[in-house]
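Allow me, if you will, to draw on your knowledge of protein folds for a short while. The matter concerns a single protein, recorded as an amino acid sequence and a row of backbone structure tokens. Could you please explain, in whatever detail you think fit, how the structure tokens follow from the sequence? I remain grateful for any guidance, and I place the record below:

…
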Amino acid sequence: MSAFGERIMAMRNERHLTRADVAEKTGIPTSRLSELERGVRIPMDSQTARIETFFGMGTGELAALVRQRPSA
């Protein structure tokens, strides 16, 4: 799992939200959110921005996590 995915999942769980809840509010399909959380896909900049906005984060907070390499 990626740092990006871990962070999204943690924020979602802290707020007791399902992937479907986040998908509805961000316009990102549930299946894509699942892939992002699991680190299967790298998010597009627009997806990162929509997630940051939804969770009230500063611009670039999640983008910085995307650039981190997973630890081995």
